[in-house]
Amino acid sequence: MLMSKRSLPQTYVEGEDEAQTLIVTLRDATLGVTLELAYTIYRDRPVITRSARLINHSEQAVDLEKVASMQMDLPTQPLDAISLPGSYARERQLSRERLHRGVTQFESRRGASSHHMNPFVALADPNTNEFQGNVLGALLIYSDNHQVSLERDPIGQTRLTMGINEYNFDWRLAAGDSFQTPEVAMVYSTTGLNGMSQTYHDLLRDRVARSRYKHDLRPILINNWEATYFDFDADKIQSILDAAAPLGIEMFVLDDGWFGHRNDDNSSLGDWFVNRNKLPGGLADISKRTHDKGMRFGLWFEPENISADSDLYRAHPDWVLGVPDRGRTLSRNEYVLDFSQPDVVDNIFEQMTAVLDKVPIDYIKWDMNRNLTEVYSLHSDSAHEGETSHRFILGVYDLMERLTKRYPQILFEGCSGGGGRFDAGLMYYMPQSWPSDNNDPIERLKIQYGTSLVYPISAITAHVGTSPDELLGWSTSMKMRGAVAMSGTLGYELDAAQLSDADKQAVKRQVAFYKQHRELVQYGTFYRLESPFESNTVAWMFVSPDQKEALLFTFVILGAVQPEPHITKLAGLDPQQTYVETDTNKMYGGDELMQLGRYTTPVQTSDFTAQVHYFKAKD
Ligand code: GLA
């Protein structure tokens, strides 16, 4: 069938000699089915990818109830499994557990890679830490239901199986047809978790992301969501633009609420035309106002979902996922469009191009604010119902492919109720993603630390929000919020017009500092030094490829009356170099910073403090 041939995101090469692929063909003579196992090994990266393709050479249809992308048996030894579980606003928390006899399973059944479990696992020797030891990572390049199974057998071997979740999956493979699984990217490191992460960062940036922005400095943006929610008009936006431009902010993103008659989350998803009551001059006017300020203009869409109160739903109630003659479950007052159907995808494509062809738009935030329930297509039949979830994501990928190809000048950012679809599949289309709606910098330490285990810093957007924080109500300094957000791709999630003069000056300084160092942050080598999952002091750093520059961030979560002095050891520097810590003018040897370390600035009583130090090689 046509859609089973739609392409999947995957790793690629830019030159023939970069990698070699071995295809092992297995044939089941009884069924008349062939299984091709594809192994691609990169010449200069410790990476092997694996996927499978099943071809039905028989005269009859074959039902695939489970088809994994990879399986591997690891020899006898104790192993730790490292995974990235989470929830809404607490995405990708690092979890590590010793594997015992039996089956350990990590999965998503939510129709998305999900907030709950990232499609990634690492198997590490028990003595492996951030800097030393052996570890094997396996990352599924896929954004829908996934399953990782780790089975430790009676002789202590561990069988790793990874792929599309068998839950709710049943693919009828017609005679003569084939089924391609998503790809797994395996990385092996003998230099601990940082070594594994650095290989993933390079691979995802260089050979999974395809956007023309994949190596570009990312613009510093301001988004109006937490500043206005649905309550804005052109004057309100103008006031944000007027305040943000002089601070050096480079892009304004108009978030949810600009279309249909949407003034709250009860209506208008699916009606992608501007709300003239709110914005009488249309999007062209907002785009012009933004460009007139010398800023780029970005726009929010949620293409896959639909409100019951929308023209699209009234015209096509059958375009929604659901079980015939049964109720459908609303989540955030939304239904999910049946993207397994090409007509539905075409309609959304046409609506979006009607906007994007007319208005100069530089960036799109692509949201997906609910998970899938009642995953049945009203246009399918009982023999094919088990295909709906995979066909849904193929439809999503198809829309992303068409739009990213047609508008290569647009920078796309993924989002899903925060970080509910932060995965390598999305990175193939969009070089950056919103990791969490949680902007509290203390919570973000864990979210960004966990996310960095696999995903490059250029892909992890991080915004300075307000204090007290919108979700938790915790109060933190502008310095703390800035330091955490500057550890990713920086942006602002606040009303610039409401900032005090002191905060405006602080933002201006942050923006200037970030512009000076963003190449190092976004494209330098990232080292996790001290983990928020293990200690009250958190540290990470960025080193330039030539080791002549480094940026160190240290955070102390809770203050203490008489804190013991804390020493942070740096990494990745040239041991022979002398480095100047530019804010203090102190000089250190590279070997000294890495072996003896430097004191984390002593903090007396305050909680939630951050220090940022820039080191430059003396010569
Ligand atoms: C999601 C996103 C937010 C914002 C809202 C708008 O929750 O994560 O950043 O865009 O949707 O509805």
UniProtKB/TrEMBL annotation:
Database matches in Pfam families: Glyco_hydro_36C, Glyco_hydro_36N, Melibiase
Keyword Hydrolase carried by entry: yes
Statement: the UniProt record of this protein carries the keyword Transmembrane: no
EC id: 3.2.1.22
GO biological process, one term: carbohydrate catabolic process
Occurrences of domain Glycosyl hydrolase family 36 C-terminal (ranges): 538-615
Keywords: Glycosidase, Hydrolase
GO molecular function: alpha-galactosidase activity
Enzymatic class: hydrolase
Catalytic reaction annotation: Hydrolysis of terminal, non-reducing alpha-D-galactose residues in alpha-D-galactosides, including galactose oligosaccharides, galactomannans and galactolipids
Residues in Glycosyl hydrolase family 36 N-terminal domain copies: 6-174
Similarity field: Belongs to the glycosyl hydrolase 36 family.
Protein name: alpha-galactosidase
Organism: Loigolactobacillus coryniformis subsp. torquens DSM 20004 = KCTC 3535
Source lineage: Bacteria, Bacillati, Bacillota, Bacilli, Lactobacillales
